[in-house]
Design goal:
single chain, mainly alpha, two-stranded antiparallel sheet, 2 strands
Length: about 180
């Protein structure tokens, strides 16, 4: 797995690219699809987004690409500054990486990362997607945050553990091949 700062940043980049697209799709198609379609009268999510002139963010409708870029920047920054370093430290508190099987240790890191990133990104999403047209209320904001955590956590946990991280680790190993001499050291 990543052994230096450059590799850690590339691993985080690969993870965030896949994750942000997965979560935007999940948010639009799974969590909000019925609302979007009922508000616009369209029979498809993409038709509803087009009819609305984009996805509601920052108090106005933005194109999907702007939503993806905004979430990518926030997720990548949060991942490299907080998520990745803290999840490694948390996993090390439970397991010794030198004595623990790599799969178990990587699973602990994934679980810790989801435990950190899901509430943090849900908090940011509650801020980004808050219905500002109705005025700001801290209790509504907190309720929206808790609701997003409840929606996102199961998806985040299972998608990261069983799909995204295995895919990213396989791609990372293919891109950053190790010399057999380096593996023994």
């Amino acid at each position: 797995m990543p052994r230096n700062q450059f590799e850690r940043m590339m691993f985080a980049l690969m993870t965030v690219i896949v994750t942000v697209h997965a979560y935007v799709f999940y948010s639009l198609y799974v969590v909000n699809s019925s609302t979007l379609m009922s508000v616009t009268g369209e029979n498809s999510v993409l038709g509803a987004v087009n009819a609305m002139g984009g996805v509601y963010m920052f108090g106005r409708n933005l194109p999907i690409w702007a939503v993806v870029i905004t979430e990518f920047i926030l997720a990548y920054t949060l991942e490299i500054t907080v998520g990745s370093p803290l999840s490694f430290k948390l996993a090390c508190k439970v397991f010794d990486p030198r004595e623990t099987h790599p799969v178990l240790f990587e699973t602990a890191i994934i679980c810790a990362t989801v435990g950190i990133m899901c509430p943090a990104m849900s908090f940011l999403a509650a801020f980004l997607y808050y219905p500002y047209y109705a005025g700001f209320n801290i209790f509504t904001f907190l309720a929206n945050w808790i609701k997003l955590v409840c929606f996102n956590f199961p998806f985040a946990f299972f998608s990261q553990l069983f799909f995204i991280q295995p895919l990213i680790r396989t791609c990372f190993k293919a891109i950053f091949r190790r010399n057999p001499k380096q593996l023994r050291q």
